Predict the 3D structure of the following.
Amino acid sequence: MIKITKEDFNLEEEFKKIHTKKNGAYSFFLGTVRQDINDDIDGIFLECYEELAYNQLNKIKEDSVKKWNLSDCTIIHRVGDLRISEKIVLVIAAAPHRSDCIEACEYIIDTLKANVALWKFNIKGREKKPVDQKKKDLDKYLNWEQVIS
Amino acid sequence: MKIQKSHELFEFSDELTFSKLKNELIHQNSFFDEIFKDSSIKFFLNLKEITNEDIPINDGDEIALLPPVTGG
């Protein structure tokens, strides 16, 4: 299941949706809004080019299912205004064995961070400042490109 | 630097490619020169990344210029 939403999600509910008797392993990644030590923010705003982002997320899912023999995967990404500690993104990779889903989960979040049409802004008071892409995030994505091709 | 326009209309010949569109936009406003020289910006035509600049552009097509993404 792939979803881009303003709404919060429930971890147990999402696990129930993907859980089947054939899976012996699930790998989870949950991203939340961090209170950065160097940048005192009130929260973040996430903007999305939704039509393109759905296409890109579907491709990430398709590639990861094929590469790591996943039985399924869940990707939920929130958009709009989010306060400190709120949930941003959930990835669940499900497979018969753990090594496949752990690696797939890492691939999914690394690729999402560098290649899906979402943009983060830091919010402080009335100020809204775009977050720069980190080189380490781009490098991780580029490393995965070689693995997946 | 901002273009400071919500929209602008241009007329093009029938046989338009992404390459011709680029040149025309640069000619109209130097802002686009910076955009097209910036290797971190990606260009999409109808939700597919443009890899060949000779790709034809037709009526109703949607081109997107995307800065580096920062989701997750």
Observations:
- The mean pLDDT of chain A is 95.
